Amino acid sequence: KAGVTQTPRYLIKTRGQQVTLSCSPISGHRSVSWYQQTPGQGLQFLFEYFSETQRNKGNFPGRFSGRQFSNSRSEMNVSTLELGDSALYLCASTTGGNTEAFFGQGTRLTVV
Amino acid sequence: GESVGLHLPTLSVQEGDNSIINCAYSNSASDYFIWYKQESGKGPQFIIDIRSNMDKRQGQRVTVLLNKTVKHLSLQIAATQPGDSAVYFCAENRGNNAGNMLTFGGGTRLMVKP
């Protein structure tokens, strides 16, 4: 079956703009988590959605937000982009419990 | 603060040798750990996991060992191959309500010499 799909793969935005990234989980998976990966900070947890509700949240500012739809697809939004938001954004899906998380290929966001 | 970390940032091994990648964690309440492999330009790939009620778990050419006494995790790769070259991350699940919230170590780069 298909893996975790993230779109778009690459994105270039200007400071101050906003961006929306999409993640389609593995079929049957109900939990979607988002992570930011940068050379300096490594992989950091943003938030997790399960059954259209945010279940866990990391330590990111309110400019970072997300949502999940009834089909488990998730989007994350970053408003008022800053240069430091340039990163690889990864999403991972699980069936919902404390089980193995499978990652997508990521969206490479560059803010100029 | 509490964190999951790695002892060695880079590990270079000869093809055919065994590799051992180490990881330390500090949250004694953690009960689920995962190892991931990440190749350049790709997302992390699940390798193997282990729960805190186990000391050892084996997969295909990989073994994960968990020592709860000293809060240490290791990944052993047998007969290392060039295709094993990648960055390896250990991760600890600290999610609330049995959710998914992974805390990652800094990563170890494994380089396999032919």
Helix- and strand-based class of chain A?
mainly beta
Shape descriptor of chain A: globular
Q: Gyration radius of chain A, to the nearest Å?
A: 13 Å
Number of strands of chain B: 11
Order of helix and strand elements from N to C terminus of chain A? EEEEEEEEEEE
**What value does the average pLDDT of chain B take?**
88
- In terms of per-residue confidence, which ranges of chain A show pLDDT below 50 for 5 or more consecutive residues? none
Low-confidence stretches of chain B: 1-8
How far is it from the N-terminal to the C-terminal residue of chain A, by CA? 37 Å
Written description of the protein model:
The complex is a heterodimer of chains A (112) and B (114). Chain A has 112 residues and is mainly β. Chain A is built from no helices and eleven strands. In chain A, strands 2, 4, 5, 6, 9, 10 and 11 form a seven-stranded mixed β-sheet that branches. By secondary structure, chain B is mainly β. Chain B is built from no helices and eleven strands. In chain B, strands 2, 4, 5, 9, 10 and 11 form a six-stranded mixed β-sheet that branches. In chain B, a hairpin with a 4-residue loop joins strand 7 and strand 8. The N terminus of chain B is likely disordered. Classes of the chains: A mainly beta (112), B mainly beta (114). At the A-B interface, strand 4, strand 5, strand 9 and strand 10 of A face strand 4, strand 5, strand 9 and strand 10 of B.
